[in-house]
Amino acid sequence: MSPFRRKLRKLRRNPRAFFRDMSAKRIEKPNVVRNAMTYANPNKRWRGRYKFVVISAVYNVEKYLDAYFRSIVRQSLDFKRNIKIVLVDDGSEDSSAEIIKKWANKYPDNIYYLGKENGGQASARNVGIDFVEGRLFDADFVTFIDPDDFVELSYFQTVDEYVARNRRKHILMVGCNHILFSEKNRRFQDQHPLRYRFKGGDRMVRISNFGLDLQLSSSTAFFDFGVIVQNELRFHENIRPSFEDAHFVARFIACSAEGHAAFLKNARYFNRKREDVSSTLDQSTKDKGLYLDVLRHGCLDLIEFYKEKGLNIPLHVQRQILYHTCNYISWNSLIDRPERVEFLSDDEKADFLDCLDLIFDNIETDTIMKFELAGIWFFHKLGMLGCFKKEKCPVQIVYFEKYDPVRDQLQVRFFCNDFGLEQFSIDGKDVSPAFSKTMPHDFLDRKFVIERRVWLSLSGFSDESVISVRVGSSATQTLLAVGKVQFEHPIKLGDVRKQLVLTSPTPAEMSNTNGLWIFMDRETQADDNAEHLYRYVRKKAPDRPLAFVLRSDSPDWSRLEGEGFDLLAYGSQAHEQALKSSQGIVSSHVDRHVVDYFRDGSLESKLFVFLQHGVTKDDLSRWLNMKKIDCFVTTSHAEYDAIVSNSTRYKFSKKEVVLTGFPRHDKLIEKSKICEEKKAILVMPTWRQYLAGGVIDGNSRCINKGFKDSLFCRRWSSLLNNDRFEQLASRLGYDILFYPHSNLLPYIEYLSIPGHIEVAINNNGNFQDLLCRSALILTDYSSVCFDMALLKRPSVYYQFDRDQLFNGGHSYQRGYFDYQSAGFGPVCYNEDYVLESLEDLLGGGARQDTTYISRMDTFFAFRDGKNCERVYEAMLALSDPDALAFDLGAMQDHALSAEKAGRWDLAETRWRTVLAHIDENAPEHIKDFAQHRMVYSLAMQGGGLLDDLRAGMQSFDGGSAQIIDLRQQKQPSNGAAESRKWSL
User: For the chain, what is the total number of helices (H) and then of strands (E)?
Assistant: First the structure.
């Protein structure tokens, strides 16, 4: 669907939201041509009061220099009279010098070229400052515009006029409005995090009371040049690749206590976001200096500057440093991503952490708790306090996240530094979790935050009942939050239900057994888990309304239409109407165009069954945790455990995840029993997200022009064209089948695939036939190796970019599956090893050693052909209030946490709850364990509980002497009770 149709559809559906969003995303596009013509006549230019000098460090920016010069030379302020430009070429290797000299020849009295060896931006700027000071320019203000950026044509006049009007205020610094310009789509967006400074228009503040205001960039600011000269201020040349600006500004402010600073909204600076991502900041994440020099010479140097003077570190400096450290702490940085700094040695990582500890020692707790920038929220603040300051957070926020109306269960989410005692009470009654998940979040090798997600059963409680949550110390202030609304503690269940029902399916929708289910694989391609499950459900429940979504031009459309599938064309009006009225969506993919088709969150109220496209082997938690998944299908014990177990990064618990096997595997096993002779080598490289172009619609993307030069293209093309590969296959009588990932199809020509290799494209639903006729699979990371393992066919892994993919270079995160220790064949890092491995396998009839055979035999939970049946039962359970509604393990953990805290009365209550939920058919050892723990909790309470103990011990050996012995034990602390478990 075209962007125009999407906008038109949105306008029709919700006009108010359409115009609100249009306003919020308004694009500012200054008409440079018109402005240039307006100011072309020098006689009409503003003759300002002040003299300005621009100092710019230049390095390989030839393609941007002309735009930079035009934006300054054509200023409404008289350029020749009021502005000089000093450009310091920091050893550029392109034609930057020639371009600068061309402009300098045109304006010899205003533009100056200086050349030097490469030494970094700070050193180049310092050369410029020295030059201006030495030439005795009549400079009032200096600014440091980056040469790949540009400014509005009234930029200098706006500053000149404002300073002149307020000259009695002694303005020493001016901060300007930082507008982002995206080179890729030519958009101007006023979205900088510091735009809050201009909320009330132009402002002036006393520098001695800078407070919450921040000025981090020297490029977007003007500085009184006299202050720089008098205090010999220079940029610190050891601070690289960032923060040298913030360090310079902070030192300038410290030397300007008697003056004022101004923030001017209409002085607009356009910061270019390069399309080729080649700027210094874009490339800085792999620079060791970002983790060492910046902290030592930048952040800690500022702290020492104030300490040496015996001064408290000002609030704005604390916030300035905190703003920078958020680069390491924000959600998309190093939290749970240790591979991003694999290029640091262990000593360097330790040094990095030591620096952060020292920094946070000097940032006040109150500054952290009130910090509102850089996407930082309670999660990060709690982690900063615990991980670096070793302090407990003064408050606790408990989030009520979701509501399940069928089982009447509420999901509670909170964060803590230690997994200790937690109490959920409704009308004063202790409530045990029905399901729970503990997710650790780490910062390198340190614990950052522990996340808890708990489902509580509200059955039996009315809307007037009140719920209370306590985590950790009872003295900690606890706030309850439902969405963006905070409530006083405690809160009525009716208020919670009312807020959450807006994003949850209604009980009627959930229990509607005749509701429409929409099935979908890719919108461009079927023959995956959704197609196979649809076929089963249609046969099992022929009266149930079902629909299958696919593009009408898909090669699979006619095949499924001929089979009688109830097809809906993706993007059609019928498809959209069906989505709105459906009970749920069943898909092998969880991409946004599937789960959030309307881009407004409206499908959040629908049930979503995630069938998966392939076995989850890598850590996909950062992506999947953003999705609303009601039923998550898995196929092996290892995969299931990696998702539901505590101490994994996935948010999903046993409530959402089921172990059923993949629907398509039923048919695959059946076909394998009657397939033809296996005489093909299946070659299936997986896709790399970094190779994709921009999104057009759904799974459609622009062509990436750099694909041909990528390592991926070069390595696979070399292997496919290797004569030895062809001769090997020919000599042993094997065909070579190349099956491209759907995203690879537009790039097939770049691989130069030779004629003897068959390019197999799935256009007739024959992918399983392809697997069955293949003797082995040659891949890098494709999960299709698991399908082959199901057939007990070996794999050869060609992982030439393994270090890049798993060391932070790309989106992959290492998961539970290790190719070396758990894979189904040899792991190869070069072309020769691949060919040797193929020859060993094929020469032996594609037989592997017993190690690989054993791995294939034991990986899958089911090979019985009943996967579709189990998945369908799991789907039905979503709308069945009598289906399994609790996890006994979560209840046991809850009781043990009370023991650890020494709350024996609470532990006794919780063990009684566990016993009440144990099924009569459960194994005896489960019931025995809970009974022993309950009796032990009674014993530890002491006092007049002997009769209760005697009654509780009647079913056990040992008699009253053992009871008395228990009562005489001292109450343990710090979890000692856990070490005294009774042996069964």
Answer: 40, 35
